[in-house]
Amino acid sequence: MGPLPIPVTAAGRTALDALLAHPADSVLAFDFDGTLSPIVPDPADARVHPEVLDALARLAPRMRAVAVITGRPARTAVEYGSFATTPGLERLTVLGAYGAERWDAATGELRLPPPHPGIDAVRGELPDLLRRLAVPEGTATEDKGYAVAVHTRRTQDPAGTFDRLREPLADLAARHELHLEPGRFVLEVRPAGMDKGAALRGFLAETGPPVDTGAVLYGGDDLGDLPAYEAVLSLRSGGLPGLLVCSGDPHEIVAPLIECADLTVDGPAGVAALLVAVADHLAAHD
After folding, report:
1. Global pTM?
2. 158-175 helix and 117-132 helix, angle to the nearest 10 degrees
3. Which distant-in-sequence residues (6+ apart) come within 8 Å of 134 by Cβ?
């Protein structure tokens, strides 16, 4: 049995203790890319870390609920995560497109609202904009259904290309009453008000938040996870124990997350080690 990591904050230690003592009253929620799945040059190659999947399958039956909250389409996250074919994940919910989409493992039902009309306009204008900007080789676009992303990770100068594209893409988003969300070498255009904090709050309201004895854990790795961090901090200020986990790539530290986190682990492998340690601890105390 691996050692349990110790959160650096008192609030984090309180939340971990509550989760370990009362798992059936607790909720686990995670981002997908960079948290459950390693960051890869081509987003289509992303797959959930195998040890994460095994640990989640051990933990999910013991929890009040487990959620994956991602900017990807829910269907894509389900496929890349092998969530529909892994036994033990019947209590898992995938909130895709920042909560606009929802997939429940218990029923296999996928709920999809109509897309924002501005996204269709951006989708149509983006190729011409990128041609006019003469973006370097390696710049890639990703159609997320309810959002459109431009990745610079595979260019010769990822940071420089990111900086050069930020203002033109912000202007494009504003023209269509959309929001530009920057991340790690990715710029995403999406409707305002779609964020992981709102998705997490909505999920807790619908499924029932952890009761007085339980806790909520959220794990993320990028700026898009800050609203979920803020939601947990707000719940914590109201008395609900909350544990904030940062899946931190040592080469691409996202400072605002590190500053808020109760516990920082080394990417998806570190998330896997944390979940395995929790699962082992619970099994040892049955």
Report:
1. 0.81
2. 140
3. none
